[in-house]
Design goal:
It is a single chain. With 264 residues, the protein is α/β, with parallel strands linked by helices. The chain has one domain: Alpha/Beta hydrolase fold, catalytic domain (Rossmann fold). It has eleven helices and seven strands. Strands 1-3-2-4-5-6-7 form a seven-stranded mixed beta sheet, with helices on both faces. The longest helix is centred in the N-terminal third of the chain and has 15 residues, at 66-80. The chain is globular and about 55 Å long.
Length: 264
């Protein structure tokens, strides 16, 4: 496992073979993907990027739009790879992945979307996000870490209070307020991509946790019928982070999906 250098966006990587790029959700970083390194690295070069402002990329300028985040990822991919990559997007990272595949389909040969959605926020949800962003401008304010982490996982994961909860608390506490503010504004302002899904013509797997508290599973699942040829899988006993809560249950269908792709 190594941290790629001189590539615009840092992160961690491992394995050799077909490149697979992972984009994390909000307010997280590359660490959420770490269990997948051992499970999926055979035959694949896994690259878990940190988005601008997060994890190892805290010194990178943070955009305030999905298009801005997508451009930073596009530039990082262009530096690292000379062949199309498989893109894996979780939640916020999924919004970025949808933008990238829509604008730059030539960069990708397959797509995995997990616990994300194509639709934009309702007016009520958008207003709440922007209100949180405004509140965080006050240096005495911060995210409610317990509430944030509780919403990220299935109820049984929260009740267990195991290592996953400790890891998530640490990650959430590490995110700079300015990163949270810009990310919330980007998420609130994201476009509705539902109408674009029919133009996606690359192998696609959609994954959701049955107990996702943040994005209703039916919203993630609905993308399966809208993306030509897409397949979908529900991960039992998992919330918003199936790849971290139940790593093997996530890796199994993703690994099978990757194995079905045409050789590079």
């Amino acid at each position: 496992m190594s941290a790629p250098a001189s590539s615009g966006l840092p992160g961690i990587e491992g394995g050799h073979g077909r490149p697979v790029v992972f984009l994390h959700g909000y307010p997280l970083d590359h660490e959420i993907w770490e269990p997948q390194l051992a499970l999926l690295s055979a035959g694949h070069r896994l690259v878990m990027l940190d988005l601008p402002g997060y994890g190892l990329a805290q010194e990178v300028a943070v955009p305030d739009s999905i298009a801005g985040f997508a451009e930073s990822v596009r530039a990082a991919i262009a530096v690292r790879f000379s062949v199309p990559v498989v893109l894996v997007g979780h939640s916020f990272g999924g919004y970025i992945a949808l933008d990238l595949v829509h604008r730059h389909p030539e960069l990708f040969d397959a797509l995995v979307l997990t616990n994300t959605r194509a639709g934009s926020d309702s007016a009520e949800v958008r207003a709440k996000r922007l209100a949180t962003a405004s509140r965080l401008e006050d240096p005495t304010q911060g995210l409610d870490v317990d509430e944030t982490v509780r919403n990220l996982v299935a109820p049984e994961t929260w009740e267990a209070q195991g290592p996953v909860i400790g890891k998530l608390r640490r990650i959430v506490l590490s995110v700079p307020p300015a990163t949270l503010i810009s990310s919330l504004r980007a998420i609130a302002g994201r476009p509705d991509m539902t109408g674009e899904l029919g133009s996606f013509h690359l192998p696609t797997l959609v994954v959701w946790g049955e107990d996702d508290q943040l994005i209703p599973p039916e919203q993630t699942q609905s993308m399966v019928a809208k993306i030509p040829g897409a397949s979908g899988i529900e991960v039992p006993q998992a919330g918003h982070l199936p790849f971290l809560e139940t790593p093997q249950s996530f890796a199994r269908p993703v690994g099978e999906f990757l194995a079905r792709l045409a050789p590079t």
